[in-house]
Each structure stands twice: as C-alpha cells, then as structure tokens.
Amino acid sequence: RDVSFKVGVWSDVKQMLVDGKVAVLPLVGRTPEREQNFDFTFPYLTMHGTIVVRDTETGIRSLTDLKGKQLAVLRGDNAEEFLLRSDLDATIVTTSTFDEALLQLAGGQHDAVVVQKLVALQLINNLKLTNLKTVGPPLEDFVQSFCFAVKKGDQKLLSLLNEGLSIVITDGTFRELRNKWFGSIEA
User: Fold this and answer.
1) For residues 18 and 151, is the Cβ–Cβ distance under 8 A?
2) What is the pTM for the complete model shown?
C-alpha cells in the first residue's frame, strides 16, 4: 500500500477521519463516544490513565480527590471523554496538546492533568519537567484499548488492518517496536 502521513492537532486529525480526508488513524482509544463515527481494529495496546500533579501537591491521590478541581486534558482525547463521563463536578480545561497541558501545570496553572501514564512519563522526561509527578494507582475506569480507527463502514480497510496487525504480532515485529518506543519508559 502507498501510504502518506499527516500530522496535526488531535481534534483536527480526528475530524479529518470523520470527513473522509484521511483513511485511517493509528493509536485511537476505543470509547463509546467514538463508536458512532468510527470502526476499530482489535486492540493492540492498552494504557492506563493517571493523574499528574505538581510535586508539592499532597491532597490529590485519586479520582475522587479531583472533585471541584481544575483539570487540564487534551481536547477531544479519551481523557476528556472519561472525565465528562465521570461527572466529577470538576472544571475541565482543554489544550491542543498534552505538552501544553503539562507545561501549564508545571507553570502553576490547573490542579492536575489526566493522561495515559506512559504518555505522561515520556512527556515529563522529554520536556524536562522536574516539578511534576504521577500520583495514586492507575485510574481503574480509565483503561484505554488502542486500535486503528477507520471511517464507519470501511470494512475492507478494517479487515486489511486487522490482518496486518495479526502478522506483525505473530512475527515479532510488534514486540520489537513496542520495546523500541516504550521499553525504557515501562522500565
């Protein structure tokens, strides 16, 4: 297959798939909210959500501690959808990227960021944010199964992607890629 890649702000890229301007999105969390617009491959990666706070924060350790707080998330991300479903009575502030959310948190804005733990750890490290930490156990109800997403009804492409995933998982390619991109973070 000839493939070209496009990058952009998540909320815009997601809309591009809805509008048919792109054929597939990788690394898309399957959520009830997204089922109406997309069809999904089988999950190939599972990540758990976490809470990120400044290192001086001692009052936030769990989801219930977020009640009444100001939380930053990526606009259109699973984290935003999860928080809206959780009905926490919190103020949700959306940003264009998780980098932006974490930088704002490190700079004194917001009370916390809700994000996938591996993503948080990688971004905190890459951005050299020494005053942030993850807290508490993984968020039980914020488990994300990542898939490829295609426009609703595109069964031909969905079948092709599922077959390709099966092949790379079976032949060890997936394990090599996972170790390359997530190995050091998971350790």
Assistant:
1) yes
2) 0.76
